[in-house]
Amino acid sequence: MLVSAKEMLDKAKAGHYAVGQFNINNLEWTKSILLAAEEKKSPVILGVSEGAGKYMTGYKTVVGMVNGMLEELNITVPVALHLDHGGYEACYKCIEAGFSSIMFDGSHYPIEENVAKTKELVAVCKEKGLSLEAEVGSIGGEEDGVIGTGEVADPNECKMIADLGVDMLAAGIGNIHGKYPANWKGLSFETLEAIQKLTGEMPLVLHGGTGINEEMIKKAINLGVAKINVNTECQITFAEATRKYIEEGKDLQGKGFDPRKLLAPGSEAIKQTVIEKMELFGSVGKA
Ligand SMILES: [Zn+2]
């Protein structure tokens, strides 16, 4: 059964480790991530962007697939199904479809409107038992066609949103989605520290986990990050493994064209990437 992300993140924050959010795109992605979490006895958050939800034909399909898999694969670790960067309407659609967690990305609204809409969603999520993530300060890079500038969040605005009763808070600290450019300045730990001081127990979320080096990840966890989003890295390792299979001509040997064979190396690559991240984040054995 799906659970809200609140308990797993409160535990992570108190225990100084982070839970990974791994975005899903299809059945193979979902299966690989769930198998990795079960094998490593780690709590896990499955992220679904609006674009991925649409690709999978809609949020109800996603909920049906994930719930079916939890049962058929006998998954015993805590699993949250989370809307990633949801607009206001998508939040309501996911609540209705049976998601256990949502992110309302109101970072593009003026702060007053972000506050008003977040407040409303806090009440709805509390009533229905979902966890809610809010965002302050847009995260750079491109996500589903939305290009953020990678601004650094205002710690006072973070406190304002945290005080509304959200369960986790994403704050821009110079992190970006996708691959990091060669001239990237790195994370602003100064900002993270200031946010942490003002928001206390609130689990902080680091988006754009692909390409942030291990040392920075560990430092961020020490400074209060309890959830780290990983998306691009699974896409890259999946593509690399699939390319290798094709380039080696394996699809031309015997029944190598069978999709279950063709997609197997990529699926295994996702699983290994997820396991590596769980080890780095310290969530192994915490389920
Ligand atoms: Zn993000």
Fold topology:
Layout: H1 6-15, E1 19-23, H2 27-39, E2 44-49, H3 50-55, H4 59-72, E3 79-86, H5 88-97, E4 101-104, H6 111-128, E5 131-136, E6 141-143, E7 146-148, H7 155-162, E8 168-171, H8 189-199, E9 204-206, H9 214-222, E10 225-230, H10 232-247, H11 259-262, H12 264-281
Parallel strand pairs: 1-2, 1-10, 2-3, 3-4, 4-5, 5-8, 8-9, 9-10
Antiparallel strand pairs: 6-7
The chain binds zinc ion (ZN).
CATH topology: TIM Barrel
Provide the helix percentage: 40-55%
**Strand order across the largest sheet:** 1-2-3-4-5-8-9-10
**Could you tell me which ligands this complex binds, including any ions or cofactors?**
zinc ion
Q: What is the number of beta strands?
A: 10
Mean pLDDT: 93
The first-level CATH class name: Alpha Beta
Structural notes for this entry:
An eight-stranded parallel beta barrel has the order 1-2-3-4-5-8-9-10, surrounded by nine helices. Strands 6-7 form a two-stranded antiparallel ribbon. Helix 2 packs across helix 12 (264-281) and helix 10 runs antiparallel to helix 12 (264-281). 48% of the residues lie in helices and 17% in strands. The chain is an alpha/beta fold and 287 residues long. The chain has helices spanning 6-15, 27-39, 50-55, 59-72, 88-97, 111-128, 155-162, 189-199, 214-222, 232-247, 259-262, 264-281; strands at residues 19-23, 44-49, 79-86, 101-104, 131-136, 141-143, 146-148, 168-171, 204-206, 225-230. The chain has one domain (6-281): TIM Barrel (Alpha-Beta Barrel). The longest helix has 18 residues, at 111-128. The mean pLDDT is 93. The protein is built from twelve helices and ten strands. A hairpin with a 2-residue loop joins strand 6 (141-143) and strand 7 (146-148). Bound molecules: zinc ion. Zinc ion is lined by residues 85, 139, 143, 177, 207, 229.
